[in-house]
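Repro:
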Amino acid sequence: QQFLAGGVAGAVSKTLVAPMERVSTLLMTPTAHQRFSVAQAAQHAWRDGGLGGLYRGHAATLIKIFPASAIQFAVFNGLKDRILAARQRRQGQAAAAAAAAAASTTSQQQQPQDLANHERLAAGAAAGAAAACCCYPLESTRTAMSCAGGVRGSLVQVARAVVASHGLPGLYRGFRASLLGDVLGNALGFTAYEVGAPRGGGVPAPPHVRGLIGACSAACVLTLTMPLEVVRRRLQVQGLAGRPVLYRGTLDCLRQVLRKEGVAGFY
């Protein structure tokens, strides 16, 4: 159920914001002769095929986001259950060793019912890493399709074109930046959501409250990890469709963007 719910939630949310994702890709991957404002990027996407232009590469997003979101939710909740179960076992063993009913009762009363913040961070980081490792080639293919002057064709054709030009590692360009961003993003996002979600008497918060908390935590996390997102996409598109190879890796891309464009270049 967690796997299915996570996948459906991710697919629906990405479909709603797909036009903005296309615009953001155009903004983050300028060419030497073509830079866009937000309005210009939207116009370019529309001229690239109308509504279909705004959703270019979205098929790859859907194929990727369903397993990615599902893996994130399943790994996080699975680790959460395991951590709490292990804690219960340790407390049960301590109570049995004490061999006193009063001590056992006290132990049960003091038993934490949720993860500590460092445990949330660890579980969220593991969830992000698992999803990134499994689904990154699809994300790389989507960027190749949706950047300005991107590779044309179906998802399979674009993936084959990337492999033909750069070998199998071409599907993993920018992976380090993406992995770091996903680990940080999921660790902070899950923690912020879990900490912020109200738990009055064990009753779950209403869906709209949980949605608002999730949106706020996601906005904060995106702001913090945006520089890594820019680096990832620029590494993914360099060398494609006649673009020059400008960066030697994640750190080199960070340095060059900061030197040439300043902090604003990451946003």
